[in-house]
Amino acid sequence: MPRTGLVVRLEADRPTVRLEDGSEWRCRLRGRLRREAGQVLVGDRVEVTPIGAGEGWVEAVLPRTVVLERPPLANVHGLIVGFSLRDPAGSFTLLDRRLVLAELLGLQAVVAVTKADLVPVGERHHLDPWAALYPVVWTSARTGEGLDALAARLGTGIWVLTGESGAGKSSLINALVPDAQAVVQDLSRIRRGRQTTRVVRLYPVRGAWLADTPGFTRLDLPRVPPRRIRDAFRELRPLACRFADCLHLGEPGCGLAAALAAGTVAPVRYEHYRTFVAEVAAGGRRDPQGGGQWT
């Protein structure tokens, strides 16, 4: 009789499926699933028939929710953006790109500032514009700061851990999941991160699942109307403007100036907004409905 499980790893079309009792089975694909590439993804809920010795057949894939293309991952619930202020200093522009992509896909988002032990408390105000909009958790894999708070934030579902190379994602996973044995490399001499993650793997963190992903330094925004970028910036949604379709780019009766003066819109976030709107207006990638690019 088929049993239901979660695909936690996929190598050479051989998914590893974790069942509800916590056991993991190395499986093969049945019928059309074997013939059609991409029919099984990490994060899929699947039906499995056991064949003995910890192995089984994947018979069917259950309906999916959000699906990402890179990395290939199904049923994603939220995004954790790993960001470092020191060693190396991360890009605030790339931080906002990831948060905008999360908004476009309807995903929850948490900012995990890594290597908190290297940042004096007096310098943590640099994340204030983001802390006013998203949960920002200061973490340290070395001291343990913030690890319980981050795990508690996840709740349930599949969360993608993403961020620039060198942001300390693998170290964070090792701290959250001591038996994960994620590979951690020292930073290169020029203080840029080396990419260490090669495959997507789900790790259990209390009631949630954490997906480690390869890190890259560039994210292209999808081809969407500028208004969708506007709506992806949470602080711009409540602005009172004369025109409903106002893009906050100098239109008459725009409420932006008052919001900037009141401090409800941070100048750094607004500059990123202007950059992103110009980018999509010039032509970006396709709309991410049903899929997306994550790095």
Question: By CATH's scheme, which homologous superfamily of the largest domain applies?
Answer: P-loop containing nucleotide triphosphate hydrolases
> What is the number of helical segments per DSSP (H or I, 4+ residues)?
8
CATH topology of the largest domain: Rossmann fold
Task: Report on the biggest sheet.
Answer: 6 strands, mixed
Molecular shape: globular
Low-confidence stretches: 183-197, 286-295
Helix coverage percent: 10-25%
Head-to-tail CA distance between termini: 39 Å
Our Rg estimate from Cα atoms comes to: 21 Å
Fold and architecture overview:
By secondary structure, the protein is α/β, with parallel strands linked by helices. It has 3 domains: 3-61, Nucleic acid-binding proteins (OB fold (Dihydrolipoamide Acetyltransferase, E2P)), CATH 2.40.50; 67-212, Rossmann fold (3-Layer(aba) Sandwich), CATH 3.40.50.300; 226-281, Ribonucleotide Reductase Protein R1, domain 1, CATH 1.10.40. It contains 8 helices and 13 strands. It is globular and about 70 Å long. The relative contact order is 0.14.
